[in-house]
Amino acid sequence: MKLSFKHTAKSFGGLQVIEDFSRDFEEGELVALVGPSGCGKSTLLHIAAGLEKPSAGSVLADGKAVAGPHPERMLMFQENALYPWLTLAQNVAMALELQKVDKLQARKQAVEWLAKVKLKGFEDYYPHQVSGGMRQRAALARAFISHPKVLLLDEPFGALDALTRMTLQDALRELIREARPTVLLVTHDVDEALFLADRILVFSARPATVLQEFNLAHLEKTHDLSDFAEVRREILGLLGIHAEHEDNIAIIEGAGI
Ligand SMILES: Nc1ncnc2c1ncn2[C@@H]1O[C@H](COP(=O)(O)OP(=O)(O)OP(=O)(O)O)[C@@H](O)[C@H]1O
């Protein structure tokens, strides 16, 4: 599904958060949004999800104005994504039950999706009985089970340690390869953006405008990002972080910007 922002702006009271944002996001494309904390990245996702209305301009999904939430545009965020009182399988199945799929069929598909994200054997565990990484695997299964056409990911792996984050990035990449949704990914982790994204948009401080766009489509990527050192440096430079500090700030939130 193609997602188009047309001169989108957003203010909350007197606070202008987004100023005249226009971009197209093509079917199957993954675009990472990076920028200083509080610049308006999550707000852009909420507008695309139909949870917030733009103050001016519009967002179109395959040419039709987004007027509210719809299951084909799925938002997934960092924490508290699963219902603690439901097992992993019940959490995943719920996405289908909400779409009126019968319970047995929903359970069967949930078990299959949990296996895809390497959670076979944990179907009947409750979220508090598994690790943070496993919870986010289950959240990915729940996001993908209803075949969303647009996936809006708000720092989905932000709470995980670096190693777990990488395995989740691999899992996400695999799921995307099969399902081909259009993905907008908000992340503070520049390496995550480099690894996953076809394009990276770097935003200014609020009100958010695009400082620069990097096109990385069709490049072969592994977690060894040494070939991307130059782009990485440029992005960090745009964010006001200088090379001598780089090792400490792969996750830019940690740098307090
Ligand atoms: N519903 C709301 N009502 C009032 N102000 C809001 C609302 N949502 C967001 N804001 C404000 O809009 C600004 C941008 O918030 P947003 O969450 O979009 O930033 P962000 O770039 O995603 O930040 P972070 O990277 O820290 O998550 C902030 O100043 C925030 O306080």
From TrEMBL:
Record Gene3D superfamilies: P-loop containing nucleotide triphosphate hydrolases
Residue ranges constituting the ABC transporter domain according to the UniProt record: 3-230
CDD domains hit by this protein: ABC_NrtD_SsuB_transporters
One GO molecular-function entry: ATP hydrolysis activity
Taxonomy, superkingdom: Bacteria
Pfam families hit by this protein: ABC_tran
Keywords, sorted A to Z: ATP-binding, Cell membrane, Membrane, Nucleotide-binding, Transport
Signal peptide, first to last residue: none
Family: Belongs to the ABC transporter superfamily.
Protein name, UniProt field: ABC transporter ATP-binding protein
